Structures are given as structure tokens and as C-alpha cells.
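seq/struct pair 1
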Amino acid sequence: MGRIFSFLIDLVYGALVLFFKFCRWLFLGNKKVNYGEMDGFEFEQHCANVLAHKGYKKVEVTKGSGDQGIDIIAYKGGEKYGIQCKYYLNPVGNKAVQEAYTGISVHQCDVAMVMTNNTFTKGAREAAESTGVILWDYVPRQVEPYFFGLFKRVLLCSFLLLVGCIIYYIF
């Protein structure tokens, strides 16, 4: 009898922990990214996710090798964007701007962009200004919520809390 009771307590505790984590996800709704645990490919995936949430359409990560300086292809406002992603500990130099500028002709894009988790050097900013490459520094570590509106989240969380309380009192 003691083992069954202990198992039920653990089960209810686990269910409540999952419930509260789910509610936190519903209310916060954002995915925090730890840049320290990320490689370049994962950063490209994260940038693609950020672009999709910012209204870019048909966001596609190119193949890893031989991408000719373009890591992501995306569309917005009738224009095709070629995006170079740089996951660096130091500011990004003008080589990334040159790669993106060259890459848009290979991929037949209209606009070149470089995204980074860091910032850009003065040389990179000057090169971007003269070539028309868009620089996006400090890519957000969080993707803003979009799945539920606030009212729906509150309603769903309240319902789940009620169900959790009922389950808790039954056991």
C-alpha cells in the first residue's frame, strides 16, 4: 500500500510540474536560445525561425556546404532575400558582407543581408553601406509568441489548472 501511495504522489507531482511548465510556456510563449550551446547550423535554423516570425515567407535554410555565402533564402514584400548568418564571439568583419553581396548574384536574389548574434566592425558597416547589404546585429535570443492570443492563453491555462486540481483531489 505504501509503494502505491508513493507512486501516486510522484505521479501527481510530476503531472503538476509538467502542468506549470506548460502554463509558463503558454504565458511566456517564447523560446529562449542559449547561444553558448549552439553551433553555426543551429544558429542558421534560429535565424530562419526569427525571419519567419518577422513576416518573411518561404524561409529556407540552404545546404551546409557550397552555399556560396548564402545560408537562408527568404521572401518579403515581393523581394527575394539572400541571408548570410554569422555566429561569432567577436564583431563580424566585412568579409561576411562581401560573401553575402556575391552570394545574391549566384542565388539570383534581390537583397543581401547579414545576420549575427554579435555586432559589426566599422569596415563591415562601410562595406554594407556602399553595397546595399542589410546588417542585422544582435539577432534576438527569443522568438516572440504567436500561437495563442493572451485571452486564449489565460482561458486555456485556467481550464488546465482546474483539471489539475480535480486530478489532485481525486488522488
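seq/struct pair 2
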Amino acid sequence: MGAYIDPRSPEHEAREPMLRSPAVVNICIAVLALVHAGSQLLSDEQYQWVIANFALIPQKIGMWLAGGLGFYEYALAVTGSLFTHALLHANLEHLIANTLWLLAAGTIVARRVGPARFLAILAVTTLGAALAFVLAQWGSQDYAIGASGATSGLMGCVFRVVFIDPKGPPGWPPPCAPLFSHRVLLASAVFVAINLVFGLSGMSAEGFFSVAVAWEAHLGGYFTGLVLFPLFDRRRTWLS
């Protein structure tokens, strides 16, 4: 099974420290850590205000779209929550899980596409995850926070990167794996199965990280990254 990480030549890649992550990944992790540290300094009332204004709440979005909230007055807060929810985490375990996931998957993707495209991928997969959660939980007061939708999107990108198509054209970097290649389909089936098991069974609600799995957001982010990654690949030139 072929595997591919870095867009540079194999000789150049061999000289890179194996565990050094790109600066853009480190910065993203630092931002998540700082936001969480700041949230721990808030009073309960202040924290609830943050959740009400920055978490992803399907009921609030539905009310806004239905005209139950001032359209222009709440436009920035409601649409912004599609992205800002990814900056918040329920507890330290939740933060650690997502930052480790970001470090592992983000390093592979950032090395392939560069910092600007990497940030664009994070934004798009965060949005895809948010829309999937909102649609699946339409009208619900349950809120979602955390970067796991975006990191799931990065996993989708990773599966397009690490599996090399032996029938692909020559050149470096090699093209991303076809969407319907058997390796990508198998990896996707495993990812979906794991999320459904943990999400639908409720195994994680009081288990591994004491945080319920927003499996809808995970799958939304994952398939957004999986399908759209070629638009952001370094082989394209629309975004330098």
C-alpha cells in the first residue's frame, strides 16, 4: 500500500524531522488551547453567554431563518457560530483529543497543500460539519462545540493523500487517490462505522472523554474534506 505525506521530493522529505509539525498546525493548536484556557477563567454566567452566542445551536439557527429573531441583528452571531463553535471545548480531555487529531491529520494535509490552503480546508470542513449537525438536529436545543468536525474533514483529506493511485500520471507530488478507489472506500467505511457505533450507542457520553460524540458533524466534516480536497490540492493553482 503506497503512502504519501509531503509535496516535496522524497530526498527533501527524508531530511525533515519526522515529528516536526508545520507552523500553521502549531498555531491552530495554540489558538484552541488559549481559547480553552480563557474559557476556564469565566464565571458560570459568562460561560453560558459564550455558549449562547458562539456554540452551534440548531434551534437558534432555525428561529433566525424563520424570522423568530431579528434577521440583521443576529445575522453575524448566527452565521458566525457555524465556525466559532470549533474554537470551544467542553473540557481538557475534549481539547486534548481534538488537538492530537489535528496534529496527526493536520500535519499530513498541511505538508501537502501549504498554510493558506490548509486554513481554507479547515474553514470549509468546519462549515460542512456544522451544516450536517444543524440539519440532523434541526430544531434541537442541544448544542455542538469542538474542532472534531474540522479534524474529521482533515481525515477525509488524509485518505485522499496517503493512498497513491498506481495508475495515476507520473510526477511529484503524485495525484490524490480517486474518490471511489477501493482503499478510500474501505477507509471511509471504517470511519463511518466507528462514528455510528460511538454516536448512536451513546458509548462515549460518560466514557472515554466524557463528551457525547456529535457523529453527524464528524460525518459532515469528513465527507466535505474527502470530496472537496482535490479543489485545494497543491497541484491546483487557484490559491497560492
